[in-house]
From TrEMBL:
Transmembrane feature ranges: 86-108, 120-139, 145-165, 172-192, 212-238, 250-267, 298-316, 336-363, 383-403
Heparan-alpha-glucosaminide N-acetyltransferase catalytic domain sequence ranges: 38-251
Organism of origin: Steroidobacter agaridevorans
A Pfam family matched in the record: HGSNAT_cat
Record-given protein name: Heparan-alpha-glucosaminide N-acetyltransferase catalytic domain-containing protein
Keyword list, A-Z: Membrane, Transmembrane, Transmembrane helix
Amino acid sequence: MDERALAPVVSPEFVGVGESSAATAAKEVALTRAGALRLDAIDLLRGLVIVLMVLDHVRDYVHAPAFLFSATDLTQTTPLLFMTRWVTHLCAPTFVFLAGVSIFMQRANGKAPAALSRFLLTRGLWLIVLEFTLIGFGFNWGPPLAFGQVIWAIGASMVLMSLVVRLPAMTVLALGAAIVVGHQFVASAIDATQLGPWTQAWFLTMQPGPTLFLRGFIPYPAIPWFGVMCLGYGLGFIFRQESEQRRRNVLLLALSFLAAFVVLRAINGYGDPAPWSVQSSAVMTVLSFINVSKYPPSLMYVLVTLGVSMLLFLALDKLTGRLQKVLLAFGRTSLFTYVLHIYLAHSVALLIGVLGGLSASYYFDFLARFAGAPTGQGYELPVVYATWLAVLLMLYPLSSWFARVKRERRDWWLSYL
């Protein structure tokens, strides 16, 4: 890697979930806390995946079959329902990858390694606390729930990144690639039931499983997601390059990921625990081909989702107008918007459920819903989409307000929100 990629110069960049920006004069130009220009396309990409994440969680609350069967179960789903769920697969890997890019940018813009390591440790711990308190309650509104999702994964990965951030970027990239490629092999070779007192640590770090310290579940084990963050850190230098060179290299990265996915998936060997198969129609066969495993993220899952996300980055780089403004508001306040959307989506779902004559108790114990929804509880996809748009309309003015706060103030605590 060119050593100039680590030179502390003012260059286009982005900051991770919650990093604040400085005020400018009359023109609204977002800066990082270090004074470097933010790269709008990355804020836009993060904003887009926030929009998709809202769709996913609204579907959880509103869709009648949401907890009766998996939306990607080819024996029960429809193409529309499958794709409604599949596009939201882009969210977690994009967030985690971009968080790794952010960490690289902070180092490259001159943040001292010791200070960066402290920040990653404290911010990671803060995210973990948020996940198991404010966020967990927002999902549940009932008995205490330890639900380790994407914020837990980002927080735990930041804690781990605080230990390796002093290493050369290419070393971290190699570590990430080794984890993403080799995780399935290691995880499949170990039986969690034989680990005794280490069982909980295994579920927290390597494979999904129940929590033994509260009532709950860990669908996002930390180590495979840490691998994705390492990829973002190791490839972060690409996002500091001059515009045309950056676009060429991002396109090359996207096509490389997608080509690797197609070739390896076609072989139907290593890379995903669920092989694809020929289905009753060409459409369903394609869906089987892209039906990759998220819990934990398989090699195939990482390749296809990050490949698509990098193509979206290139498309968003040219976006202008009202949609750009909306996505920037979400993308520059992603942690704030993430937490807020849980409470808004839950509240709106409860409201329309009660108005529709549904049982209110259904909305006050999220984990119990995995046992199955009562007959007739919930609505079909058109209502899901309408509710999704309503929640986004409510989120936008709040996210836009907070984006202005972060643009105009430099308080240290804003980097934690």
